[in-house]
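Sequence in, structure out. Go.
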Amino acid sequence: MPELRSSTRQARLRFRKLDDQQAEPAVKPVPPAPQRAGKCDHIPAARGRKGAPWRRVVPAPRRARKGAEVVDLDANLGSEHLPKAVAIHAVVCESKDPALNKVAQGVGNKGMRMDGESAEKLVGAEDDSTIAPIPERVHVGNSPVYITDRKLGKGGFGQVYVGRRVSGGTARTGPHAYEVALKFEHRSSKGCNFVPPYEWQVYQTLNGCYGVPAVHYKGRQGDYYILVMDILGPSLWDVWNSLGQAMSPHMAACIAVEAISILEKFHSKGFVHGDVKPENFLLGLPGSPEEKKLFLIDLGLASKWRDSSGQHVDYDQRPDIFRGTIRYASAHAHLGRTGSRRDDLESLAYTLIFLIKGRLPWQGYQGDTKSFLVCKKKMATSPDMLCSFCPPPFKQFLESVTNMKFDEEPNYAKLISLFESLIESPASRPYEAAVSLQCC
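Output:
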């Protein structure tokens, strides 16, 4: 198999000398030409000062709506964006990388289809105002009756609420818990399309897998497909916020060890997650035996890296399709390449660096070419620059995962060992224990 990572690695080396600054506008603004005298100069203004010269009023451009499912570069753009042909050509002419140029052509010709939910995604979650209200009571399959309580959050493929058991139930977690998480997905949503969500198949395959929350009941009620799951605690994003948007390298190392272990088990089932980020790693329920265990949630973008015969899936590239979260996605995901195990690990590397530094160099881009510009910046940012002020293990981890081949099997034990020096008690550090984050 050819070296599929070569174009990405060459681009990173080519742009290594670039500094860590935001991209400048592709074309410098041209000052307006002086107004020529015309036949209409004697006409007073319709409103304002009497005798003021007449000027043609140009309507203010409309801002692009958030949550558009397909980005159409032929649509009217704001004044801060260039027309499609100019913007794409101006940026592409700076790069000779064929893979990067291919992505730009995909953006210009077909638009980018985004899946999932995040502030860094071009496609938002479903519009709640256009669908049926959430049921006040839930009873699916053999489940007890739950009363729908407060909303916990929203993802690209559904909404999650607290469910309180009407009667019985004394446990904190498990099928007999008095509080559970209810995940609602409307049957007409993009994740369902009037059939049970694809995420159900993933949970069914992974149920009981280390680091994946347990699903106790599932079924359809009215217009909604509903999952009844263990309720969990705060996400790593919440923890990061509570710590003043900065996490110690020691804590990030503990998270790295546990997250790599979870991904190893996840991958062993034949799936890649496809959307690794701080919001999708949750701690267990506070006060429960699993309060310091890490869980990986939101499996709507998971895909198989091996087929039914056990062979690795074939490599493919579709620059017009992007799946994941722009901020944390691998460079391969931006280029439309088939997802594999290396992509989850690269996203984890960006997640860990973000938790320590509080910001990634490609944050702040806006507009319809955002995904392309972020991809270009990722490929131009060297590991030295990205991991500045981070302990050496984080740079070593980033270099290891970004140089993996498409079908390469990660050496998870070696990746975990990179962080041993940052954990105070390596001998007592559990790899797969329910209290794995106690070292933090």
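Check: The chain has twelve helices and ten strands. The longest strand covers residues 146-155.
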